Amino acid sequence: MNHEYLLSVDGVTVSFDGFKAVDNLSLYVDKDEIRAIIGPNGAGKTTLLDIISGKTRPTSGSVSFKGAELTKLREHEVVRKGIGRKFQTPSVYESLTVFENLEMSYPKGRNAFGAWAFKRSKAVIEKVEEIAELIYLKDRIEDMAGVLSHGQKQWLEIGMLLIQNPDLMMLDEPVAGMSVGEREKTAELLKLLVEGRAVIVVEHDMEFVKRIADKVTVLHQGKWLAEGSMATVQQDPKVIEVYIGH
Amino acid sequence: MSKNETASLPARALKELMQGDRVYLLLLAVLILIVFPATLSVFRLALVGKYLTYSFVALGLVLCWGYGGILSLGQGVFFGLGGYCMAMFLKLEASDPKSTSIQSTPGIPDFMDWNQLTELPAYWIPFKSLAFTLIAIPLVPGLLALIIGLAMFKRRVGGVYFAIITQAVAAILSILIIGQQGYTGGVNGITDLKTLLGWDIREDSAKLVLYYVNAGLLFGVVLIGRHLLASKLGRLLMAMRDREDRVRFSGYDVAQLKTFVFVAAAMISSIGGAMFTLQVGFMSPSFVGIEPSIEMVIAAAVGGRGSLLGAVYGALIVNFGKTFFSERFPELWLFLIGSLFIAVVMVFPNGLAGLDWAALKRRTLSVVQKLLPKRGHESSASEPAPTPAAPNGGRS
């Protein structure tokens, strides 16, 4: 067992005033893997993403990524290590165009003076157009992000992560509010972009999870409950009990 | 053909001018550089010059509040510090041993002598140098803003809490200045400023020169501000205002960006303060505290906090209103500015700049075009913009 994982979460606990939102949780994610994290409301899924992305400091435990410890870093430093995160509700800059949204996420000119001096070079334009094509928004590139549909905003946000070329993408409910057709396209997109990196998806839509996930981790009340392929997990009596419940 | 082209030249120039908001900048320049000096008495022009010094503060607020979303109710601090730095230099020049020979300690500012000081305090000494003073004017307020910014923004203090803290800083500084009379001139401030390197700043000709220096600096700041806002940094500030977390999780250090824009606003305000001292001839704590700070916020809001030019107009209008009403109905002014602020917030949140100027511009343009010399058919057909003035939103 000397294998080094891309992301290792080791025995992480977060307590808010005694309440343990995440309790002694361990999780290992490898390259080229789509990992789904499921669980009922309050299972600690979003808190887990908060811990990895540096938004919440764990009370104990460690998170290491490409061999480096993350728990002491601030959010932007975690991002610069190569971790991108999409929020639960689509979070795009509504008063900017699709192009500008992507450009804003382009990983150059990240301090104040750098941003002031930032030039829209050919490389930037090409990269933005490439990503826009990938996220099905090529013909909307000059439109304001605010007029996009809910699903398109989700794609745009995924694109904003993608342009930074992260090694790990964390997507919190990427298909919420999407039509059936849009879900299909999102699944295709995730399959495509996982190449060379890892993706963690927090999702309630089981059909979608079944389609995309290589491996599923089930959380319940902050604790690790089960892990494996979707089919195994669905058979697990503990999981069935939690979902169908009391 | 060539005849047609020359005939259409004014129309073309007009069109070029109407691109974007260049025309508004030109109008403001004409107003400040030509109309005011040509029509106002030196006394009134000096008043306008004074109002324009507040515009610097309003410009800073457009950057930090309008774009960055950081409301500071303590910008008077930075205006005041800039002004005090200038005043210290001028006061030292006015306190040469000869003209202060009746004091018990000649050669130090008069208020120090009245307060039984017998020696110039150490931190006053460098202000004997104009070069040092000119550097200190933006640097002292900039450093203070840097300290406040780092302390607050790293800890994620924002919104109304930040506003209250800046207000507290304004209160503290004005109390400090009033309390330390022997070192600061107390509540009267630093008065009786006379010359700048021997040049009498109280004369009419000097006032005119200072007015133009002030206006030049103002337009310099406006142009730098436009450049900043047109860059990615400008969009980043807006993005930070609307979606702070998204910006943070795109790998930007939000605290650093906020500190940057807050320091920039402070340094811009300090130029206004220094020009105030030069033009009005004194500096006092009444320009440092809470009240002037809030007045400056109102000026920015009235002009339009999202517009640099709006800020200049806002400062002119609010301060003209203040002078006008204070001369005639002094007791009404505070009620009036209060209602003005409420009206701006409730009725036109984008201030004057938020009104439909584009429609006015179009209408004016069509009238002017009718008045221009008639052109041939073909030239009007081959009209499309002679310059590649970036119709795709400035992408290059």
Summary keywords:
heterodimer; A: 246 residues; alpha/beta; Rossmann fold; four-stranded antiparallel beta sheet; 37% helix; globular; B: 396 residues; mainly alpha; two-stranded antiparallel sheet; disordered C terminus
Summarize the structure.
Chain A is α/β, with parallel strands linked by helices and 246 residues long.
Question: What is this structure's SSE topology?
Answer:
The complex is a heterodimer of chains A (246) and B (396).
Chain A: E1 7-16, E2 19-29, E3 34-38, H1 45-52, E4 60-65, E5 68-69, H2 75-81, E6 83-86, H3 98-105, H4 112-117, H5 122-134, H6 150-162, E7 168-172, H7 180-193, E8 198-202, H8 206-212, E9 215-220, E10 223-228, H9 230-235, H10 237-244
Parallel strand pairs in A: 3-8, 3-9, 6-7, 7-8
Antiparallel strand pairs in A: 1-2, 1-4, 4-5, 9-10
Chain B: H1 2-7, H2 9-18, H3 22-39, H4 42-67, H5 75-94, H6 110-114, H7 130-153, H8 159-179, H9 181-184, E1 195-196, E2 199-200, H10 204-230, H11 232-242, H12 244-248, H13 254-280, H14 290-303, H15 308-328, H16 333-346, H17 357-371, H18 377-381
Antiparallel strand pairs in B: 1-2
**Can you count the helices of chain B?**
18
SSE-based structural type of chain A: alpha/beta
Supply the number of helical segments of chain A.
10
The percent range for strand residues of chain B is under 5%
Largest sheet of chain B: 2 strands, antiparallel
Taking all Cα atoms into account, the compactness measure Rg of chain A is 18 Å
Supply the number of structural domains of chain A. 1
How do the strands of the widest beta sheet of chain B line up side by side?
1-2
Mind telling me the C-alpha Rg of chain B?
24 Å
